[in-house]
Amino acid sequence: MVSDKIAVIGDRDTVTGLRMVGATQHFMPKSPEETRSKLLEYFRDPKMGLIIITEPLAKMVEDTILELSEAPVPVILLIPDRYGPTGEYETILKELIRRAVGIEIKI
Amino acid sequence: MSKILPGTKTTRMELLRLKNRKRLAQRGYDLLKEKLDSLIMEFFNSIAAIKQAREAMEESLSEAFSALTQAKMIMGPSRVVEFAHASQVRADLRITTRSMMGVRVPVLAVQQRYPDLPYSLVDSSARLDAMSTKFRDALRAIVRLAEIETTVKRLALEIERTKRRVSALETIVIPRLEATTRHVKLALEEREREDFFRTKIIRDRIAAEE
Fold it and tell me: For B32-46, how does the pLDDT look when each residue is reduced to its tens digit (9 = 90+)?
């Protein structure tokens, strides 16, 4: 039984909303480099259970996310921002599945 | 032709042992193949579940965002941000694992601690409460999706591993055992024929001497 933290990397609205309901760790990056370094920082935190990141931000650091997603914990999850889903989530999940199983899967 | 296992003696004892090993390998192969089949079935079920959870999450998140916009319109953007940062609500993730076909998959649950008064009632609008509720649901949907997604990832990993073992048994272990069995059998037969001839020649010689 482990209690873990939830972290959010996103734009102002996403962070505000999720902060309201208790995601204590949050960050609004201004550049892809900041996103990457913060992502790595959260990833290395042993008490982190879930990292939520918005799709537009994730698109810029796609390679890092793919690399980090191979580890089971923490879970890195992409969510759409307030402009709606961009399909980035499918791209990343498909790539992960293709790496593991070796076949393309339609989601 | 597969390689013959090194260091095999051509004896009957060895032949029996090889047959037992082959039977074991065959059984392992059958079991693993069955496991692989059900893992793949489970995998596709989870993929379907992901799609549903994803849709539910997107919907509840977009509702939450529209509630956020409304709250901003009533109270002003900076006030909403202020309230969000002052919010006393804390959400933690509780991770337990369960076993699915011998694969440990996580079960995630959010634990949200609500104080009786999360923020000042006088200064906030009812829209803020609505937004808070919406985001709470959204967070729950997000966590549920995270759970299913991790399950899918773990299953994919396990499928890969099982596949490798199945094909190792199929293309290396079993053919090698079969080749070795054949080799031992042939050697034994050859020796039998040699013995047969030897006794024949000796018998002839003895007959000639007499």
Answer: 999 999 988 888 888
Measure the CA dihedral B182/B186/B187/B190, to 10°.
180
- Give the Cα separation of B129 and B210 in Å (integer): 119
Please name the member of B50, B96, B145 whose beta carbon is closest to the beta carbon of A107.
B50
Smallest Cα–Cα separation from B166: which of B39, B3, B16?
B39
Residue B118 predicted with pLDDT over 70: no
What is the dihedral sign for C-alpha B83, B84, B90, B91? positive
Q: What is the pLDDT of residues A14-72, one digit of tens each?
A: 888 888 887 778 888 888 888 888 888 888 888 888 888 888 888 888 888 888 877 77
| Residue B93 to residue A16, Cβ atoms within 8 A | no
Q: Would you kindly state where each structural domain of chain B is located, as residue ranges?
A: 12-209
Contact A60, A35 (CB under 8 A): yes
Which whole number is the average pLDDT over B15-38?
93
Contact: B135, A20; criterion CB under 8 Å: yes
Interface test with A, best of B36, B43, B59, B61 (most A CBs within 10 A): B61
| ipTM surpasses 0.95 | no
Closest alpha carbon to A60 in A96, A89, A36, A85: A36
Q: Which domains does chain A have, with CATH numbers?
A: 5-101 (3.40.50.10580)
Yes or no, beta carbons of A13 and B135 under 8 Å apart:
no
Write down the architecture of domain B12-209 according to CATH.
Orthogonal Bundle (1.10)
Count residue pairs from A and B with Cβ separation < 8 A: 127
Q: What angle do CA B68, B73, B76 make, to 5 degrees?
A: 95
pTM of the full structure: 0.79
Give residue B58's Cα distance to chain centre: 27
